[in-house]
Design goal:
five-stranded antiparallel sheet; disordered N terminus; 25% helix
Length: 111
């Protein structure tokens, strides 16, 4: 019997690879540690892979990190999209695109 695991690659779906997930989860972990984010969800569709982050599981996502390979030759394969649907950053390098979120984590310290 040749059973494939449930997470086996589906050629009709866009997915995040291990290094992409590592970058995303690194940022996610820092926000969780800061108490800003509490949950996430991943969607793997025909045209996009989406990592959504939530403050609470019952809310709409605060941010969506999207991978759209069809935009490889245009604006860039990766995007961070805000709750209101606005594209906060788009580009070809996931690390650079995720920096728009890291800026939101840095807050002034009150004395």
């Amino acid at each position: 019997m040749n059973a494939s695991p449930p997470f086996a690659a589906d050629p009709d779906r866009v997915v995040f690879d291990r290094s992409e997930l590592g970058l995303i989860l690194s940022v996610y972990g820092r926000f969780v540690a800061a108490g800003e984010w509490r949950d996430y969800a991943m969607s793997f569709l025909r045209d996009a892979a989406i990592f959504s982050v939530f403050r609470r599981a019952t809310e709409h996502p605060l941010y969506r990190i999207e991978k759209r390979p069809k935009l490889r030759n245009a604006q860039g394969i990766y995007a961070v999209i805000g709750m209101d649907g606005r594209i906060l950053k788009r580009g070809h390098d996931l690390g650079q695109v995720l920096r728009v979120l890291e800026r939101k984590l840095i807050r002034p310290v009150d004395d």
